[in-house]
Recover the amino acids of this structure.
């Protein structure tokens, strides 16, 4: 049976624990930043809250626009999973490929009207996150340490958590 001290004894496990702590800090910082940004912007897609326990800012999109945004978010979540799996198994090319899949080249910009329906802060955070996936892929490719890679991943997931804490996508009725 493995003792707790044995688990924490290797360098890789210590890097993972440090990375997990950094992830938590990144998430907290991201949430705070987007909460502040979320209250500064205005968009034609933002509607006042109706009586609801959900007090996030409503972004009202057409059915097709909402589906496109949700598809993009699921792609990012799939990338995060692939990065973690690649790191856990030591398959760095797979982790790099997963990160690159959500890079700026994959940013969905099919509907030219969607930019007019979303707050500038939401759009900026999205582009920053896509660029972050590219930077992470570059870091993995360059042989960055697992702790550095996890630190960058923490920043990215902090962006996701912060965005979801401030905004919600609703379908126009």
């Amino acid at each position: 049976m493995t003792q707790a001290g044995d688990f924490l004894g290797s360098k890789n496990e210590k890097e993972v624990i440090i990375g997990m702590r950094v992830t938590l800090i990144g998430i907290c910082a991201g949430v705070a930043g987007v909460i502040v940004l979320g209250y500064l912007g205005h968009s034609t897609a933002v509607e006042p809250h109706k009586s609801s326990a959900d007090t996030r800012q409503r972004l009202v999109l057409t059915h097709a626009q909402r589906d496109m945004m949700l598809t993009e978010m699921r792609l990012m979540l799939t990338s995060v999973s692939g990065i973690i799996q690649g790191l856990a198994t030591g398959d760095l090319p797979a982790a790099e490929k997963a990160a690159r899949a959500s890079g700026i080249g994959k940013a969905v910009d099919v509907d030219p009207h969607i930019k007019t329906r979303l707050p500038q802060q939401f759009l900026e955070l999205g582009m920053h996150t896509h660029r972050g996936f590219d930077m992470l892929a570059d870091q993995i490719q360059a042989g960055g340490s697992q702790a550095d890679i996890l630190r960058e991943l923490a920043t990215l997931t902090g962006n996701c958590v912060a965005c979801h804490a401030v905004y919600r996508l609703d379908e126009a009725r």
About this structure: Confidence is low (pLDDT under 50) at residues 1-9, 34-44. The beta strands are 46-47, 57-61, 167-171.
